[in-house]
Design a protein that fits this description.
The protein is mostly helical. It is built from six helices and no strands. It has one domain. Helix 1 runs antiparallel to helix 6.
Length: 169
């Protein structure tokens, strides 16, 4: 199971990387269109879609690598037992919020497909297509938070602390 979850997180990270490449390509194509008048429309919109997809798809991988910003001042001052219970509470809230975000972003994508909603830009892209990246990213994030909750509950969760704050002066 662990290997499958790690593959899921890595696949989402690779999809995010491809979306970043897509953003770069759309920006370059837009610049070429301005200078050469190729007539390509919607590059700004597509760059935005790719950027949003990259952000959402990278969330779970970032969480699993302990690279999300955390304020640990309170957590680090607690005893191990209290820290464990606070982590359980926080991760439970995160699972709930990520699950709600996943549900409503999937619902938004479905409704955009159902109503044939298109972007207001000159590209007229069906909006359900870029919204899928958000729905998938939040789904993988909800799975990652649930994974973290189960690991914390079992006492198997490993959180690395950075000494970066000690070197900022």
């Amino acid at each position: 199971m662990r290997a499958s979850l790690n593959k899921l997180y890595d696949a989402a990270a690779w999809a995010a990387a491809l979306m970043m490449v897509g953003t770069l390509l759309m920006v370059v194509l837009g610049m070429l269109d301005r200078y050469l008048a190729i007539g390509v429309r919607g590059t700004d919109m597509y760059a935005g879609y790719c950027m949003a997809g990259a952000g959402f798809l990278a969330l779970a991988h970032t969480l699993k690598r302990n690279e999300h910003i955390r304020v640990t001042l309170l957590v680090n001052s607690l005893s191990p037992t209290r820290k464990h219970w606070l982590e359980l509470w926080c991760l439970s809230a995160a699972v709930l919020l990520a699950g709600l975000f996943c549900f409503y972003s999937a619902k938004l994508s479905y409704q955009s497909w159902e109503f044939n909603d298109v972007s207001t830009g000159n590209d007229a892209t069906p909006l359900w297509i870029p919204q899928i990246g958000m729905a998938l990213g939040t789904l993988v994030l909800a799975i990652a938070f649930l994974d973290e909750l189960v690991l914390e509950w079992r006492g198997q969760r490993v959180t690395t602390t950075s000494d970066e704050a000690l070197h900022n002066e």
